[in-house]
From TrEMBL:
Residues 275-386 form the DUF7043 domain. It comes from Hypothenemus hampei (Coffee berry borer). Residues 1-20 form the signal peptide. InterPro entries: DUF7042, DUF7043, DUF7044. This is Uncharacterized protein. Residues 22-114 form the DUF7044 domain. Keywords: Signal. Pfam families: DUF7042, DUF7043, DUF7044. Residues 135-267, 398-533 form the DUF7042 domain.
């Protein structure tokens, strides 16, 4: 009996040893692979073995992109460490150690054997023999004219006006086979041996990044010799003027774009010309910023909208829209997409321009040039909640603020208003005056009520003549009103402050709470979050601070309260001032234009009048 148990134990240990000496390779690295290792090399990997490496005995998986494996080569009884990096479905890169012998084969683990792996060795690129082409968009998109250099074939640069790289997406289907190929048209340069005429069509095998280096691999569709079929390309995110190309089926010859065996010096080709078919309203013309993308410049004239943005220093990307057809508020525009590729069509839905802003919605881009398709309302993604997007004037002209008057306020928020000197750091100096009461002051009291002045600590006291004592302290913040409107039952205001280091343009939500109380909430940037309400004060709703304001105009201030909820932003704000024609004013205002001061005085008197009336009414009611 004891003997039997003993045998069983031995059998178990042997079995467990055999199990330890086995592993399964991941499916993504299985198959037939071509590489150039000073000669054409074919590597086959199946579930347990790799050509010339033996049987897999141990494997370590890092995030399913790096596999480190140990293979056992039976004939020599040695172990080899192979590290495989999965770059794309069609491309692997590998490095390996020499085959080492181990006294005890049981310790043939990744940790032990892979100590022999030199991490600085050249990576060998493996190209799938049965590759599946992928979409080229992430590798290369656009049309370029190019000049080329080949350090091994000729000296100098061959530039020909007809040499072209063309990688354009056919919109409609991303699985379309033409989206998985691109063409390079080479041209011969007179007197330069090694230059040639010919079109090379490449299938895209996928792309990957190593730091700022952007690699992509291709297969020449017309080439049957394996070593001539596969190539590797290199772009650098900082430099979009050059592309490096390998002249062998290897990527490790491309370390930098400058030192690549073949180098293409590229120049984007202009987009095709589209004849405009309609005209945008004249008052759209000018320079704007897009609040959805504040780093972009927007230029609009009667026929074009040109949006330029700067993804990196010294680089820019431009999208051009050309007016094609217009009905009601909708405008069908041709979009000339990146770098000379073919156009598609987008529908804009505009609100007539007002103040310093254009409100619009943009539909989904489609390939068809047909108003009823492109501009059908289903092209506008109808989320349950949506808001118009905004273009804001680059050099805005201030308008009368929808909230004006003199208010004290209390505030709450992530970024409250603070006492400061505009453009400085020291606290406001104030001569020794005794302040009975300090308040936070929000005033829109300049002559035309176009500028908001905020003073976080304002001395309320007046002298015996009723003149404000605090005539020395400057406001801590000054911002100009440049536009307002009402949407989704909320009133929005855009202000402009040249000195604001974070965002010159700020969006606010505002609301009248009472006869003389106003609530406002300031947003972090130039657009208001859908969730932002007048009470929002923190980043979760896109706001920085909420203020509650109460009017406190004193007789000397001559600063009438004014409120407009923005439901008709197209009205000329100046015409809001209703000029009552009291008989006794006739003589002084016979020329129909009263001066501003008399107008304000009139306002003040009117207000007193109305307040009295109100008090009278309440008394009657009670
Ligand atoms: C994969 O291996 C490469 C080269 O050894 C290394 O640079 C990279 O960080 C690894 N990635 C992961 C996810 O382990
Ligand atoms: C590449 O050029 C060839 C010949 O000019 C043409 O037949 C082919 O459609 C082009 N392929 C692409 C992807 O543009
Ligand atoms: C609008 O600008 C585009 C691009 O700068 C220009 O080609 C076009 O002629 C301009 N249209 C008008 C009406 O000025
Ligand atoms: C701009 O023009 C449109 C019509 O062309 C008009 O409805 C809108 O009120 C104008 N805006 C301004 C601020 O004049
Ligand atoms: C404004 O000042 C008055 C009088 O000093 C005070 O009663 C009121 O609470 C203040 N309102 C706000 C919103 O700070
Ligand atoms: C008002 O503020 C000033 C300084 O900003 C301070 O000296 C003064 O004591 C304050 N007055 C009251 C009543 O808080
Ligand atoms: C942000 O404000 C909302 C109400 O506006 C409040 O419910 C929430 O607790 C606040 N969050 C933080 C982190 O202060």
């Amino acid at each position: 009996m004891a003997k039997l148990i003993y045998v069983a134990i031995i059998a178990l240990t042997v079995a467990s040893k055999c199990l330890a000496l086995q592993c399964t390779t991941p499916t993504i690295i299985r198959g037939a692979w071509f590489s150039w290792e000073n000669k054409n090399t074919l590597t086959e990997i199946d579930a347990t073995t790799m050509t010339n490496r033996g049987t897999c005995v141990d494997i370590k998986d890092d995030y399913h992109v790096n596999y480190t494996m140990v293979f056992h080569r039976e004939q020599e009884n040695c172990f080899i460490c192979v590290k495989i990096l999965v770059r794309t479905v069609n491309i692997l890169e590998k490095m390996e150690s020499p085959c080492i012998s181990l006294p005890d084969p049981n310790v043939a683990t990744v940790d032990r054997v892979c100590q022999a792996l030199d991490p600085h060795q050249q990576l060998i690129t493996l190209f799938s023999e049965n590759y599946v082409p992928v979409n080229c968009r992430s590798s290369l998109e656009g049309v370029w004219n190019f000049a080329y250099q080949n350090r091994f074939k000729f000296t100098g640069e061959c530039r020909h006006p007809d040499a072209q790289i063309r990688s354009c997406q056919t919109a409609g289907s991303q699985f379309l086979i033409t989206n998985q190929k691109f063409n390079i048209t080479y041209k011969k340069c007179e007197g330069m041996l090694g230059t040639f005429d010919g079109v090379v069509e490449y299938s895209c095998l996928g792309d990957w990044f190593v730091g700022k280096n952007h690699y992509f691999a291709v297969a020449n569709t017309k080439e049957s010799r394996k070593d001539e079929k596969y190539r590797c390309f290199l772009k650098n995110r900082d430099d979009d003027l050059f592309i490096g190309v390998s002249i062998t089926a290897e990527c490790n010859t491309l370390k930098t774009v400058e030192k690549s065996p073949e180098r293409l010096h590229i120049r984007p080709v202009k987009s095709e010309i589209v004849e405009p078919g309609c005209r945008l309203p004249q008052n759209f013309s000018g320079e704007w910023i897009n609040t959805a993308n504040i780093d972009a410049d927007v230029f609009i004239n009667e026929t074009h909208i040109i949006e330029t943005h700067y993804p990196d220093e010294g680089r820019y990307r431009r999208t051009i829209y050309v007016c094609k057809e217009q009905k009601d508020t909708r405008v069908l525009m041709a979009r000339l997409t990146v770098d000379g590729c073919q156009k598609d069509y987008v529908c804009f839905d505009f609100v007539p321009q007002h103040h310093n802003l254009i409100r619009y919605r943009k539909g989904v881009a489609v390939i068809k040039d047909d108003f009823s398709t492109v501009c059908s309302w289903v092209q506008f993604q109808n989320k349950v909640k949506w808001r118009y997007d905004l273009f804001l004037k680059k050099n805005p002209v201030p308008i009368k603020c929808p909230v004006a008057g003199k208010f004290n306020f209390t505030q709450k928020g992530d970024v409250p208003f603070e006492t400061r000197i505009l453009g400085g750091v020291t606290l406001s100096p104030r001569p020794n005056v005794y302040c009975k009461e300090n308040i936070s002051d929000f005033s829109v009291c300049d002559e035309e009520q176009k500028e908001i002045a905020i003073d976080q600590n304002y001395c309320l006291s007046v002298d015996h003549r009723g003149k404000p004592l605090d005539i020395y302290s400057d406001p801590d913040y000054k911002m100009k009103c440049i536009g307002f409107w009402k949407e989704n039952l909320k009133s929005y205001l855009i202000t402009f402050d040249e000195l604001d280091p974070f965002s010159k343009y700020r969006c606010w939500v505002y609301q009248r709470a009472d006869l003389n109380r106003v609530l406002m909430s300031q947003a972090i940037g130039p657009f208001c979050d859908l969730k932002q309400t007048v009470n929002s004060y923190n980043y979760t709703e896109g706001a920085t601070v909420a203020v509650e304001m109460e009017e406190y105009e004193r007789e000397r201030d001559q600063c009438p309260m004014y409120f407009d909820d923005g439901s008709n932003p197209h009205l000329n704000p100046e015409s809001h001032i209703i000029q009552f024609d009291f008989g006794y004013f006739k003589s002084s205002s016979s020329s129909t234009t009263t001066t501003t001061t008399t107008r304000y005085q009139m306002h003040y008197h009117l207000k007193v009048l109305f307040t009295c009336l109100l008090i009278e009414l309440t008394r009657i009611c009670i």
